[in-house]
Design goal:
This protein has 150 residues and is mostly helical. The protein is 63% helix and 0% strand. It is globular, with a radius of gyration of 15 Å.
Length: 150
């Protein structure tokens, strides 16, 4: 059974696209002629409408529901991931913190931080939401991987 996404406004989708591009709230606000507070308000609205908490989970949710299909993929070299890299990406996309990811994988906090930093560098990502968006664009995250992270 497919759960359809709740109705979101074009402004909500533009905010999500900004997050997916790795933009800060201030950059998104400037682009959309909104204040930082207004951008945060839109993110709260998106969270309430979707149940996705935090920018990273919102971006993941939007890709999984096909809402970012029209967003042109950023030109990047394909990244070859190890199994642990993919697991870290899946857990980040699910909204787990560094500490939660470390516990889930049975590795140290520093190892997870190192994985995230290395992945961000390899993908050219500016933050976790951007990293998740780039992984989706390369087909590394999708419906088939959600069960792996659980």
């Amino acid at each position: 059974m497919t759960i359809l996404p709740p109705p979101l406004t074009c402004r909500h989708l533009a905010v999500i696209a900004g997050l997916a591009r790795g933009h800060s709230y201030a950059q998104i606000g400037r682009h959309l002629h909104l204040s930082d507070q207004s951008v945060k308000g839109h993110i709260r609205d998106i969270t309430q409408a979707t149940g996705a908490h935090g920018a990273t989970v919102i971006v993941d949710w939007a890709y999984r529901h096909g809402l970012m299909d029209g967003l042109r993929a950023e030109p990047r070299q394909l990244v070859d991931l190890r199994e642990r890299d993919l697991r870290v990406l899946e857990l980040i996309a699910a909204g787990l913190t560094t500490e939660e990811t470390a516990r889930k994988l049975g590795i140290g906090h520093a190892a997870v931080k190192g994985n995230i930093a290395r992945l961000s560098g390899e993908f050219g990502a500016t933050g976790r939401p951007h990293l998740v968006a780039l992984a989706h664009q390369q087909g590394l995250l999708g419906d088939e991987t959600r069960g792996v992270a659980a």
